[in-house]
Write a structure and sequence with these properties.
Blueprint (H helix, E strand, L loop, with lengths): L4 H7 L11 H11 L5 H10 L8 E2 L5 E2 L7 H12 L6 E2 L1 E3 L2 E3 L3 E2 H8 L10 E5 L5 H8 L4 E5 L3 H13 L6 E4 L12 E7 L8 H9 L2 E13 L7 E2 L14 E2 L1 H10 L3 E10 L16 H4 E2 L2 E5 L7 E8 L7
Parallel strand pairs: 2-4, 3-6, 7-8, 7-10, 8-9, 10-11
Antiparallel strand pairs: 1-2, 4-5, 11-17, 12-13, 14-17, 15-16
Helix pairs in contact: 3-7
């Protein structure tokens, strides 16, 4: 069974030790009440994955664990079969021994766009909110972070993450907690907090911004990526029903509006560092994610619009700083 004991042990003498007052009860409740029906099968897959640490590990230029010559052809076939049980794989790509997990998203492209726009992660304590299966967390670790914690309520993403971590040798300061940020005790401790692809799913985006702020230490940095629309600081799109076939999209602000929101929430040095229209090459169906993808969400006669007639996905990345509190 997936356990969080090692995480508790690691943070006992860390700045995150205050989490031990509440987090075990929160995760214990998840283990009792929120288990996915497929979890027993997925946990069996984890047990069958190889235990030995890889000789080759690259987290800086990609997420590459092991090489083909480290295992036999039969082991590769077995590993491919096991990892296929975790389909669909949405965030990546991963290179696991001789297996290329070509995920729905080219998440490496997003990382390449933002990595030089943020404060260096060397020796920083990092939180990734809505981390998916943890792809960007591995890149954060590869960029020098001393510890990376991700939160995402998806049980499948948790199992995908645990599979990659086991193949990577297991002993890395990186952990995924299957809860949302609203369940996470505020701690004012992280040097950098990422929220990528989350804000538009929140019914109260302002509350989400405050939740992110409450996890940052004074002087800490927020990296926020979200869907936006064109317009002035009062322009916000509220879809009537679905947006790009998603039924949980609430608010798509303009970049100017979001910068105003961040400023109103007390962030400083707010700036947009990237604005990019999502391309059909960046998000698409693959062997490892055979379901519908971006091309199915767009108007077939005009890909500048979604199937509902809204502007096609436009994503912006913002960086902001939590100010120092003179009373702290």
């Amino acid at each position: 069974m997936i356990s969080f004991t090692s995480f508790y042990q690691e943070i006992a003498d860390d700045v995150l030790h205050h989490w031990l007052e509440d987090l075990p009860a929160i995760l214990g409740k998840w283990q009792r009440e929120h288990k996915h029906g497929e979890l027993p099968k997925w946990e069996k897959v984890l047990k069958k994955l190889p235990e030995h640490p890889p000789v080759h590990l690259d987290l800086e230029s990609e997420v590459a664990i092991g090489r083909a010559d480290e295992v036999s052809e039969s082991e590769i076939a077995k590993l491919t079969s096991l990892l296929s049980i975790y389909k669909p794989w949405r965030k990546g790509p991963y290179r696991l021994y001789d297996i290329h997990i070509d995920t729905e998203w080219r998440s490496d492209w997003k990382w390449d766009r933002l990595k030089d726009q943020i404060s260096p992660l060397n020796n920083r304590l990092v939180l990734d909110v809505g981390c998916g299966n943890g792809y960007h967390m591995w890149r954060m670790l590869g960029a020098g972070a001393r510890r990376v914690v991700g939160v995402d309520p998806s049980t499948l993403f948790l199992c995908q993450f645990e599979a990659v971590k086991k193949l990577a040798g297991g002993k890395h300061p990186i952990h995924l907690l299957p809860i949302g940020i609203q369940d996470l005790p505020a701690i004012d401790a992280f040097d950098t907090v990422f929220s990528m692809g989350v804000l538009y799913h929140r019914r109260s985006p302002i509350d989400h911004l405050f939740q992110l702020k409450n996890q940052l230490r004074d002087g800490g940095e927020l990296v926020l990526e979200t869907l936006v629309v064109e317009g002035d600081e009062q322009q916000v799109l509220v879809p009537h029903d679905r947006y790009a076939k998603m039924n949980n999209v609430w608010y798509l602000p303009s970049p100017a509006a979001l910068m105003l929101w961040l400023t109103k929430c007390g962030f400083e040095n707010v700036r947009m560092v990237n604005l990019d229209t999502t391309s059909l090459a960046e998000q698409r169906s693959t062997e490892w994610m055979p379901n519908e993808s971006l091309v199915d969400y767009l108007d077939p006669n005009d890909i500048t619009k979604t199937v509902e007639g809204y502007p096609a996905p436009l994503r912006a990345t913002f960086v902001a700083t939590k100010p120092y509190n003179p009373l702290s």
